[in-house]
TrEMBL record:
Name of the protein in its database record: Transposase
Lineage: superkingdom: Bacteria
InterPro entries with a match to the protein in the record: Integrase_cat-core, RNaseH-like_sf, RNaseH_sf, Transpos_IS3, Transposase_IS3/IS150/IS904
PROSITE patterns: INTEGRASE (PS50994)
SUPFAM superfamilies on file: Ribonuclease H-like
UniProt source species: Williamsoniiplasma lucivorax
Gene3D superfamilies: Ribonuclease H-like superfamily/Ribonuclease H
Molecular-function GO term, any one: nucleic acid binding
Any one of the GO BP annotations: DNA integration
Domain Integrase catalytic per the UniProt entry, residue ranges: 150-314
Lineage summary: Bacteria, Bacillati, Mycoplasmatota, Mollicutes, Entomoplasmatales
Length: 322
């Protein structure tokens, strides 16, 4: 095919932009691949017309990315090991920080991204979350937190909530209390039923970790546990400032919702419900919360884990309280 004939064919197929001077080499190479695949145009003719070298094009195709000078098989293995060890739930950014934390190998996120793209490794998409509505009691409180999830010191603002843990043909319930300064899960309780006591034990265990000079805000939704008379008595005795989401407004307690989403996406949804037993579910939740508190990097904490963040900033928040 002559150069003129190729130009005419490109014009017919509306791909004459291959000749645009504003395109980078990578953009031209990407177009050449598509044109060759869809229209069977010669690679040689397309490269000549686009004024790019065939050797450069084939090198780019072989390496999978335009800026890979050398494929490192050791890096490939490390990235694959971490990707599959964490059940394929993390993308390039989280994996780069986990690799750094556990192997002291400082890989930039874009490097991990390129290897993952070449290897066809993608993070599992999160499932849609379903909100279960429970009946509510008579006691309601103002939304003191008002979606201000930023705290100045440890224990200033706490959030609490309950989620369902489905296994086999049964269901358990998980209650957590989370500190908004560090993101740490202060305490959690698992129960076979929605009795009031496991939630109140959860709250009591959490306050024991907070400086006695602090009067924490404790935010919840309008579930029965948090609108009962027993709850009113409990938070009064423990010295909490109560705060409550507006009815049917789950983003008001988004800090708890995001933790539950992470737990279920990164652990629970990896296996079908029928594969979980009560014992394996409890063990998985315990292991994940320990991982979350002590090892899992969080972007808002400058990619530190909650406990590492507390350790590094302890002098700051203690001084703030005192």
């Amino acid at each position: 095919m002559t150069k003129l004939q190729l130009i005419e064919e490109l014009q017919k197929s509306k791909h004459l932009d291959l000749l645009s001077k504003s395109l980078s080499k990578k953009e031209k190479w990407e177009k050449i691949i598509k044109l060759h695949k869809n229209y069977s145009f010669s690679i040689k003719d397309l490269c000549n017309l686009a004024n790019v070298s065939r050797s450069g094009f084939y090198k780019w195709v072989k390496n999978g990315q335009s800026h890979f000078n050398k494929w490192d098989e050791n890096l490939e293995q490390i990235i694959k090991i971490f990707y599959f060890s964490f059940n394929r739930v993390y993308g390039h950014q989280m994996l780069s920080h986990l690799i750094k934390k556990f192997s002291n190998l400082d890989l930039k996120p874009w490097v991990v991204y390129r290897y993952m793209k070449k290897l066809g490794l993608f993070a599992i998409t999160r499932r849609k979350r379903y909100k279960y509505n429970l009946e509510s009691g008579n006691n309601k409180y103002d939304n003191v937190l008002n979606r201000n999830f930023v705290a100045s010191f440890f224990g200033e603002k706490l959030v609490t909530d309950i989620t369902y843990l489905h296994y086999d043909n049964n269901t358990m319930f998980l209650s957590i209390v989370k500190d908004l300064y560090s993101g740490k899960i202060l305490d959690f309780q698992i129960s076979d039923n929605l009795d009031l006591q496991f939630v109140y034990t959860n709250i009591k265990n959490s306050i024991s970790q907070i400086d006695t000079n602090i009067q924490p805000i404790l935010h919840s939704d309008q579930g029965l546990h948090y609108t009962s008379n027993r709850y009113a008595t409990l938070i009064s005795e423990l010295g909490f400032i109560p705060s409550m989401s507006r009815k049917g407004n789950s983003p008001d307690n988004g800090a708890c919702e995001t933790f539950f989403a992470s737990l279920k996406t990164e652990v629970i949804y990896i296996k079908p419900r029928s594969k979980w037993t009560k014992k394996s579910m409890i063990e998985a939740v315990i292991d994940y919360i320990e991982f979350y508190n002590y090892f899992r990097p969080q972007k808002r904490l400058n990619w530190e884990s909650p406990q590492d963040f507390l350790n590094k900033n302890k002098s700051n928040w203690i001084a703030f309280v005192n």
